[in-house]
From TrEMBL:
Binds 1 zinc ion per subunit. Substrate binds at residues 20, 22, 180. This is Adenosine deaminase. The gene is add. Its EC number is 3.5.4.4. Transmembrane segments: none annotated. It comes from Rhodococcus oxybenzonivorans.
Length: 361
């Protein structure tokens, strides 16, 4: 059996469902794009210093403060070349880390300051991802990137973004999402968008249960009909540990588990935003033990200074997981992806299982 270290983890085939495009830029790219577009608001002028600033600023323990860091990355993603480059480099970086399938999300409405239309924004991002996939292929790597179009939950464009997602779903967009500060912005405010997605047989996920508790999760499921839960860590608010040490699930937790609703858990990010105090207390361990459909994700690779391999290593070091566990979480993610069943099954049978078999020996 291959030793379970970072080098080996990079060789393992991985599936990523929750990753923000504007949260994964290379620091040097942020600097270069800022110079190109005349943005002078960056807090540092070297790539190492900028990387450190993003990580430290995101370590505040507050979701609202965490979200403020995105002002700088979004500012340099307002031109066709900037959007294309960021998407291309994202695909290449994921391939370098052994990710074979990823769903990367971004909010088109945040990239209109230089006069681009919503359609043009999506077109440039898709162009970048295809270029990144091709570049990876020339290096003997395999990665497929699907796009999730995100609407900001504090804004009023969710129906428009849902229509955009459906319009581009045969060109690389695989679903829809809402994101932003949960408190005061319940998902039920966007029912029109979710109804539109359901009426068009289209997939969507909802950020819920990260900084806000069970009401957010309940609304996302009962009112909005979400396919997956973005984060969903607060589902543990509906799980109690009895005097005998046995977990007791409430009705909502039971429903989430029974319906196999995927949880897009992001360990490092959940600690940074204060959803969890320390990684040792992250509910991943409990939820995995109780056989919820848990998945491992990065959320924002720049802000968390992380990769999928590093996230998996942190779980291994914290909870003692082995290759078999990591394979299960990877298959969980692939089963939960927003691409057709036959394509999911093909990746599981022809890429993921054989890839882990080599590592397990």
């Amino acid at each position: 059996m291959t030793a379970l270290d970072l080098s080996a983890l990079r060789r393992a085939p991985k599936v990523l469902l929750h990753d923000h495009l504007d949260g994964g830029l290379r620091p040097e790219t942020v600097l270069e794009l800022a110079r190109d577009c005349g943005y002078d608001g960056l807090p540092a002028d070297t790539a190492p210093a900028l990387a450190t600033w993003f990580r430290e600023a995101a370590d505040s323990g507050s979701l609202e403060r965490y979200l403020e860091t995105f002002a700088h990355t979004v500012a340099v993603m307002q031109t066709p070349t900037g959007l294309e480059r960021v998407a291309r480099e994202c695909a290449e970086d994921l391939a370098d880390d052994g990710v074979v399938y990823a769903e990367v999300r971004f909010a088109p409405e945040q990239h209109l300051e230089e006069g681009l239309t919503l359609d043009q924004v999506v077109e440039q991002v898709l162009l970048g991802f295809r270029a990144g996939e091709s570049a990876a292929e020339t290096r003997g790597q395999r990665v497929r990137v699907g796009v999730l179009l995100t609407a900001m939950r504090h804004a009023a464009r969710s129906r428009e973004i849902a229509e955009l997602a459906v319009r581009f779903r045969d060109r690389g967009v695989v679903g829809f999402d809402i994101a932003g500060a949960e408190a005061g912005n319940p998902p039920s405010r966007h029912l029109d968008a979710f109804e539109y997605m359901r009426n068009n047989n289209a997939h969507f996920t909802i950020h819920a249960g990260e900084a806000f508790g069970l009401p957010s999760i309940h609304e996302a499921i009962a009112f909005c009909g979400t396919d997956r839960l973005g984060h969903g860590v607060r589902i543990t608010d509906d799980i109690t540990i009895g005097d005998d040490g046995v977990p007791v699930l409430g009705s909502l937790a039971n429903y989430v588990r029974d319906k196999r609703i995927p949880l897009e858990l992001c360990p490092s990010s959940n600690v940074q935003t204060g959803a969890v105090d320390v990684l040792e207390n992250h509910p991943f361990g409990l939820l995995a033990q109780l056989r919820f459909r848990v998945t491992v994700n990065t959320d924002n690779r720049l802000m968390s200074d992380t990769t999928m391999s590093r996230e998996m290593l942190r779980l291994v070091e914290t909870f003692g997981y082995g290759w078999t566990d990591l394979e299960r979480y990877t298959i969980n993610a692939m089963k939960s992806a927003f691409i057709p069943f036959d394509q999911r099954l093909q990746l599981i049978d022809e890429v993921i299982k054989p890839g882990f078999a080599v590592l397990v020996g």
